[in-house]
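Subject: Protein record for review, amino acid sequence with backbone structure tokens
Why sent: The fold of this protein is of interest and is recorded here as tokens.
Enclosed: The protein record, placed directly beneath this head.
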Amino acid sequence: MRKLLILAVVGLIAQLVDGALGMAYGLTSSTLLLLVGVAPAAASASVHLAEIGTTLAAGFAHWRFGNVDWRVVARIAVPGAVGAFAGATFLSSISTAAAAPWMAGILFTLGTYLLIRFSRPLRAARVAGPLRARFLSPLGLVAGFVDATGGGGWGPVATPALLVSGRMEPRKVIGSVDTAEFVVAGAASIGFLIGLGSEGFLLPTVAALLIGGLIAAPVAAWLVRIVPAQLLGATIGGVIVLTNARTLFRTAEVAGPVSLVGYGLLAVGWVVALVFAVRALRRTRRARAVAAAAAAGDTRTDTTADGLLAADVPAGAPEVPAGSR
């Protein structure tokens, strides 16, 4: 019972992170499951089975709010399902000893990506326009494969690529990616079922993750309004990097003073990323305050506007990229 409660907390934390960032449910939950000793294939299988429920709820909510581009969903979900099925089959076919460093390497890389992404100002989208299948299909295939073999990665791979393209509104990027993930999670679960059998799914773990995620869903909607995504992303990225570094060091037989130095360097990098994240957040808030003041016809100086807190800025004020002033 104690372990199930811990796993429910894991699902709750993962959903809080995902609700605030629009990504990283799989990354967070898989990392924490590996930390408590769950085998890599079983961890990924259980996470994806739980995601069928969480992504269905998320997709329905995004559809109700008009955040889904069904054309994009259709073109990214099908190749994503193919990639996820192939990734699940691959992960199921290798031993636990071989899978652990593979999965840790993917999670470490994606955690590093989160650190870099959220230590810089979040950019606004460019001019909207149509996305072609020759871009969406390979993206879905790669994102689906990484997601299944790494226990997570669909959001961190697909969402930034669509945002950088500048051809979709950010809300529709997140809504479409989350909706397509339901198909991807289902395909990955089928792949794990074929490769591992029904015993490959830890059903109590799945239930605990799902319950925790469903409890956290409304809390995440509130959390995203008060906790800056910039800081949360950099914090979670550091946790994922340090946690999976342990597996990589152990596989490479790095121990003693060398491992301490390695952990020290990673910790320093994490602190630096957090500092840059705070600076980027402050610059973005200042730029947003100036934009809000200009839109309201305020004649205050930039110095006065710079002193505004985020709470002083209207909730609907647009995000202005730092450095655009």
In short: Residues 213 and 283 are 33 Å apart (CA to CA).
